[in-house]
Each structure stands twice: as C-alpha cells, then as structure tokens.
Specification:
By secondary structure, the chain is of the alpha/beta class. About 25% of the residues lie in helices and about 25% in strands. The protein has six helices and seven strands. The longest helix has 12 residues, at about 35-45.
Length: about 180
C-alpha cells in the first residue's frame, strides 16, 4: 500500500474529514475489539447512564473475535467479522464519541447517517486475511468482558494496520460506488 494514508489514533475530526471512500489507509495506535455481545453490553451501559470500560471518544472499534495466540505471538488470526450485526448498536456508540469502525460488508443507512452527523468513518478490512492482518497487531490485552472469550473487548496496539475507507463522513460509500462503476461496463 505505497499510496496509503497513514493515520494515528485516536481519530480527530480533521483526520476523519480528510478521508474519502476508496482511500487506502494504514492505522497505527490503539484500536479496540468488540463484537455482538460486547456491543450489547456497551449500549446497555450507555442506556443506564453508566461509564464504558474505556474512553470511546475518538476511538476505533474493530469487529473481530481473534483466535488464541500461538506461543510467542501476541494474538492469533484476527480477521474482520460481518459488520451488519452491529448496525443496531453502532449509532448509539457513534453518538457517544466513537469515530471509527473496522469490519467487512456494508453498514446500514442509519449508521451512514451517524457517520455523517458525528464525523465518523467505516473502514473495511480484508476478510479471509486474518493471519496476515494479525502481523500488524503488536500487543493485545483484554480490558473488559473476559467471560465472552474471543468476543471480549481487547485493547490492541497496531502498526500500519491495512484498511480501505468503505463509508466516509461525506456520504461516500465504496460498496454503492463500486457497483455503479462496474454496472456501466
């Protein structure tokens, strides 16, 4: 990804606003993992007015349930899971300050509207490349919901984590634009 934009977390409004659907991005810094069960717990906390187990402002949530780490490794295979299952939860988390999502597959129109309103971005990671992606993860620590196993929330430190902007804060949507582009051929 020689033409990739390098981004360091946490995300700021300026960073998010500079990104456009189709941009190749290399993320470095902290990323948090969360899947369905963890998202439900996070939203339940917000609904009760209770604090989250980490400061979500400016953060990226990666929809992943990594496999156990092999000896000498920080994490196992860590490929993205299908994002639509988090559509019910993502708007509330974006409203609370989350600015980035990493997953695979298109997010809902409601999530897209929240990305525009609150300056957020949805990144797509390559499904089926979990072992390769895990090489960009330099540390992994469970910080909440250990009882969820692979779905526990982890704080990852990443270096040059490869993603593509799939849905941006300007309404750009690579999934829709890609279909239109190839439908004309």
């Amino acid at each position: 990804m020689s033409n990739a934009i390098k981004v360091i977390t946490p995300l700021t409004d300026d960073i998010v606003m500079s990104l456009k659907a189709g941009d190749n991005v290399l993320i470095s810094g902290t990323v948090y993992t969360a899947r369905d069960a963890a998202h439900k717990r996070l939203v339940d906390l917000l609904d009760k007015g209770q604090p989250l187990p980490f400061d979500i402002k400016g953060q990226i949530l990666y929809f992943v349930g990594p496999t156990p780490a092999k000896p000498g490794k920080v994490i196992g295979s860590a490929g993205p899971t299908t994002s639509y299952r988090m559509n019910a939860y993502s708007p509330k988390l974006i409203t609370a300050g989350q600015r980035g999502i990493i997953g695979k597959g298109e997010m809902s129109a409601e999530v897209a509207e929240h990305l525009k309103k609150y300056k957020g971005v949805y990144f797509a990671a390559v499904g089926g490349a979990g072992a390769l992606i895990s090489k960009s993860i330099t540390s992994a620590e469970i910080i909440a919901y250990e009882d969820l196993g692979a779905e526990a929330i982890r704080r990852l430190t990443v270096k040059d984590f490869p993603v593509v902007v799939a849905q941006d804060c300007h309404g750009g949507n690579l999934y829709k634009e890609g279909v239109k582009k190839y439908a004309r051929l």
